[in-house]
Fold:
Amino acid sequence: MAKMVTCRNVITGESVEISADKLTFRPSAYGVVIKDGHLLLNGFHEGWLLPGGGVEKGESVEGALVREIQEETGLSVKPGRLLSMSESFAWPTEVPDTYFHVLSFHFLCTDPIGEITADAFVSPFEKKYLRVAEWVPLAKIGDLKIYNALEPQMLVQ
Structure:
């Protein structure tokens, strides 16, 4: 009998039981970029996302972090210390019949350079679902829905 896992949809909150054989392994890296009391976030659905995304085969986690932040915000950053790693079984609304075993690495990033833009959105997902990044005041973070965030207190440490 195949092992079953529960995948949760981060947007709707729905859960579905699926066979582990249907899972795609997806390591991902996300940046916590803070500048002048503001956190860098991309708009997504009714909330926000930390910039970042999937690690491609043959790519380092830190390399993916830098690439993804550049694609999603237009900014170059320096990866800093690892803040946390989390694991989940996810079922994204945007990709039907796709289920992920996700390992998410959250890094503190420093020295953001450049201008925020959506011009570097390259994937169909980014072009369709993300909104241009914004610097959001840290004082407002606890009131926001951030789909892929650490606990709010971790964001401001």
User: Anything to note?
Assistant: Strands lie at 4-8, 15-19, 23-35, 38-44, 47-49, 52-54, 76-90, 99-113, 130-137. Helices lie at 61-73, 124-129, 152-155. The longest strand covers residues 76-90. Residues 152-157 have pLDDT under 50 and may be disordered.
